[in-house]
Amino acid sequence: GAGVSQSPSNKVTEKGKDVELRCDPISGHTALYWYRQSLGQGLEFLIYFQGNSAPDKSGLPSDRFSAERTGGSVSTLTIQRTQQEDSAVYLCASSRPLGEQFFGPGTRLTVL
Amino acid sequence: GENVEQHPSTLSVQEGDSAVIKCTYSDSASNYFPWYKQELGKGPQLIIDIRSNVGEKKDQRIAVTLNKTAKHFSLHITETQPEDSAVYFCAGENYGGSQGNLIFGKGTKLSVKP
Question: Could you tell me if B102 lies within 8 Å of chain A, comparing CB atoms?
Answer without folding.
Answer: yes
